[in-house]
């Protein structure tokens, strides 16, 4: 080797958005004049500047090159140690390339942004805003979400109430607002509220929103009912006050004439009717009445049969699947991306289909899922597979027993089994077309509660996200999906 090198310092620290400089000293220990070219390699290479980029040294002389590292204040600047190297290529002897190595530690920083979508919601009995939480820092974010308002006028159902977000990713929190008192009549009232994103040891990030509570019945209906009630009461009072008195003069005239109004008593009859004898002939049946054994039996039977055949049986309602639910959303929002799904709970059957981040399954019941039905719109299709126990595995993990199932938009995709002896699902893998969004999920695993929100990489058709556990002794009980 005809070159001696030294990095000063070999390890350095830099804050995102700042810069640090490392000096590279080198000496030409050869016997010819040579020119050296420099190139920084490693994860910090995009943010490194070499000055000068080439250096010419005579034999036995020493030169210095400055390496300036300036990582941006973005999630791309990963916190922690980041090794790098400088490739030094001699012009005269390119085969004698030297690569000294160093280390730059990027300090962590946290930056969180939250936004309500929409900021104002309207309703009579509830409102459903969504809170988008973005992790703009370079470390994993763990936070809880809670709601509050002045006067405790609203109740809050927040899911999930705890989130874990990787750097550069976002999580969506579904919130259901319910007023504690119903406005039966009158105009709408605005109820401001606050959703707080709380991190350990840091002041909460408050996001302001407004819930406009509408009256259950319009104001004009209240006025109409009041006027109607008043008119009804007035009519009853007038009827009672002016009810006409009706009297009969017939009784008075009879009494004046001294005539009794009672009818004369009947005189005894000499010819009393005799009781019918046991052998008397029964009276003929009325017209249209069926007599046992008579000729009318056949007609009566025919009439009964005709009456039964005219009753229409109720047609069974078609099964509501994930595809029927997602087609309805696609018709309402043709340009959007949607995902609908339902779960087959062991011993209970299919749940009703839900969409876009709603929860399905029986979280906390201990009952496993054995099959999942998924359908999408606006993503050019989806693919999935069920992950089930593998008792024969050496590492006590499950496996994918079947090939991946891939379908187009608006088509039901089924993974798992609904048979009576079907194996429990440890979890399932899913992805959508790489150019049309990505899949995020939150999963409730038996014995491990709700896991954090996870997503696959957007724009990567070969990437997938896995919802569930891996051990043979665990299983999935509930989940939610978004695209």
UniProtKB/TrEMBL annotation:
Superkingdom of origin: Bacteria
Compositional bias (Low complexity) at which positions? 268-290
Q: From the UniProt entry, list the residue stretches annotated as the region Disordered.
A: 257-322
Instruction: Select a single GO molecular function from the record's annotations and give it.
Output: hydrolase activity
Q: Which UniProt keywords are present, listed alphabetically?
A: Hydrolase, Membrane, Transmembrane, Transmembrane helix
Q: What is this protein called?
A: Hydrolase
Q: Please indicate if the UniProt record lists Manganese as a keyword.
A: no
**Membrane-spanning parts:** 220-242
Q: Per its UniProt record, what Pfam families does this chain match?
A: ChW (PF07538)
Bias (Gly residues) occurs at 291-309
Please tell me whether the keyword Hydrolase is annotated for this protein.
yes
Chain intervals with Basic and acidic residues compositional bias = 310-319
